[in-house]
Write a structure and sequence with these properties.
GO terms for molecular function: 7S RNA binding; endoplasmic reticulum signal peptide binding; signal recognition particle binding. This protein is mostly helical and 542 residues long. 69% of the residues lie in helices and 0% in strands.
């Protein structure tokens, strides 16, 4: 393994076959995008980012004790066997520094009207160095890292090589490299490793930025300039070779599990309606929820096996399009998970239906928690894609949010939200996707919200009347009590502004008499003072 200062020396050396440590895991794209967003590239400041990479590289070398010597031509070589995962960041940060320097030089070159070949030559040279660092990183990851990190290093190296060929105007080669990087990053966007929801959203945003902003524009330009006839022939040959490849026994077993999962998802039929839920027994409801949980768990098990096959090299994939199967299984998983959340929402609505007292009492708060409905709606919003389905879930979430305010004692806020819900429920939504989950969601919105919004708004108004009168909630005898909401407008007392408004019209007092009366006094004082000075200087002379 060569040093990061001399990238060409490491590609020909042999690496240890079995490292002495467990395989490292390095999320390359997330680390790179985080460094770029926090250090200048949000404003396209490549010079600042290059300076940061230099400081970062120096800190990593000091932490790993791999600093260069002070004498001339004394460079520190990275050992073949190491136990710190931070050593992998040395070629990564070096590649980022060389790439940032190249982007800075090529940006300056593009600003000149006349041709500056020295700037372009220098920028291309730094870009070649970035590609060599990316190749060093790939060689290190193949020995010391897991399969997912190796795939990410391959995607990073393909992207750097594609950018180099793009700047050299070798568009067919650039198209091939960038297409490979695009395919790898699309697979990696599915194989997320984040545990928390915030990190997962950030990781997906970084992959979307890489695919849509960094790779897609270059791919369009390469397709415009390149002749794709020979690339099409290569794709046909590679697809024919893949079709002739044989899958292993383990891969055949995974395919059988995928077919079983899809069959169980198709056999479930339409989602239970709210009226059917109210008429069903507890055993039938529990069996439906357990069935959804069982299929969802089976989908997660199959997805983990598919992900392990996706990170393997292409020659070991068995000629199977694992990405397409992953999309199919994930669709079934999201469908049954959404159905389970919908059944839990039905159960919460059934508890609300059976309430005999006001929702804000302590007994009602112990049995029914509207905040749980808000949480279930948020879970559904993350899995849905259609606009109409999302709007329907948002309306149902608004109902639970209003009930949560009413349960917490904020009855006027709940009335306002329910009044907004009445306006929303008057419009009809058309489904964009004819799926069993979308049909169930839109059917629930149409059957529940128009009546529930009016019913709960009347209950909240009665509760406000009861609180105003200081007695328990009961049916009013007249309709005048409903006029308490909205409350009548009352004038707000404000500070008087008469003095400020009349200030421009006040005439100042006449002070001329005072000024004229003080002038003789000033003259007398001045003459007396001069006479004294004159007497002091020359008054005694004859």
């Amino acid at each position: 393994m060569a040093s990061a200062s001399e990238p060409t020396a490491s590609l020909g050396e042999e690496l240890p076959s079995v490292p002495a440590h467990a395989p490292f895991s390095l999320n390359i794209l997330v680390k790179v995008k985080t460094m770029q967003q926090q250090n200048g590239l949000r404003h396209q400041d490549y010079h600042r980012y290059r300076q940061y990479c230099s400081r970062r590289l120096h800190r990593i070398r000091k932490a790993t004790k791999l600093t260069n010597g002070r004498e001339r031509f004394k460079k520190c070589v990275i050992p073949d066997d190491f136990s710190l995962d931070k050593v992998l960041e040395i070629p990564l940060v070096s590649a980022e520094r060389a790439w940032a320097y190249s982007a800075e030089l090529l940006g300056v070159y593009a600003q000149f009207i006349e041709d500056k070949p020295a700037l372009r030559y220098h920028g291309i040279g730094r870009l070649r160095k970035a590609v060599r660092y990316a190749q060093i990183l790939l060689a290190m990851c193949r020995v010391h890292c897991d399969s997912r990190t190796v795939m990410e290093a391959e995607a990073y190296e393909s992207f750097m090589s594609g950018v180099l060929e793009f700047n050299l105007e070798e568009f067919p080669a650039a198209l091939e490299k960038l297409t490979l990087a695009n395919d790898l990053y699309q697979k990696l966007s599915v194989l997320t490793t984040s545990t928390s929801e915030k990190e997962l959203k950030l990781e997906k945003a970084y992959y979307a930025q890489m695919l849509d902003s960094d790779i897609a524009p270059k791919l369009r330009q390469c397709r415009y300039y390149a002749d794709e006839s020979h690339l099409a022939e290569r794709k046909k040959e590679s697809s024919a070779a893949k079709e002739g490849a044989k899958a292993s026994k383990n891969q055949v077993a995974i395919l059988q599990q995928i077919d079983a999962v899809k069959a169980r998802g198709d056999a479930r039929g339409d989602v239970m309606t709210l009226a059917e839920y109210f008429d069903s027994t507890d055993d039938n409801i529990l069996a439906a929820i357990d069935g959804c949980s069982e299929v969802a768990g089976l989908c997660q098990e199959v997805l983990s096996k598919i992900h392990s096959e996706m990170v393997k090299p292409p020659d070991e994939s068995g000629g199977i399009d694992w990405a397409a199967h992953e999309v199919e299984v994930r669709t079934v998983s999201e469908d049954v998970s959404g159905e389970r959340s919908l059944l839990l929402i039905y159960g919460l609505l059934a508890k609300l239906r059976s309430l005999n007292s006001w929702i804000g009492t302590s007994k009602a708060r112990m049995s029914v928690k509207p905040e749980e409905g808000v949480r279930l709606c948020d879970m559904l919003l993350e899995t849905l894609e259609g606009t109409a389905e999302k709007q329907a879930i948002k309306d149902i979430r608004l109902l639970f949010l209003a009930l949560a305010h009413a349960s917490g004692g904020k009855v006027p806020e709940a009335v306002s939200l329910l009044q907004l819900l009445e306006q929303r429920s008057a419009t009809q939504l058309k489904p964009e996707q004819d799926t069993r989950l979308s049909r169930g969601i839109l059917r629930l919105r149409a059957d529940l919200l128009p009546a529930a919004a009016v019913q709960w708004r009347m209950k909240c108004l009665l509760q406000m009347v009861a609180e105003k009168g200081g007695r328990a909630a009961e049916a009013p005898t007249t309709t005048e009590s409903t006029k308490l909401f909205p409350p009548p407008l009352q004038p707000m007392p404000c500070k008087p502004l008469v003095i400020d408004m009349a200030f421009d019209y006040i005439t100042p007092p006449d002070l001329s008499k005072e000024v004229e009366g003080r002038k003789p006094q000033k003259q007398a004082a001045s003459t007396g003072l001069l006479s004294r000075l004159g007497g002091w200087w020359g008054g005694g002379r004859s």
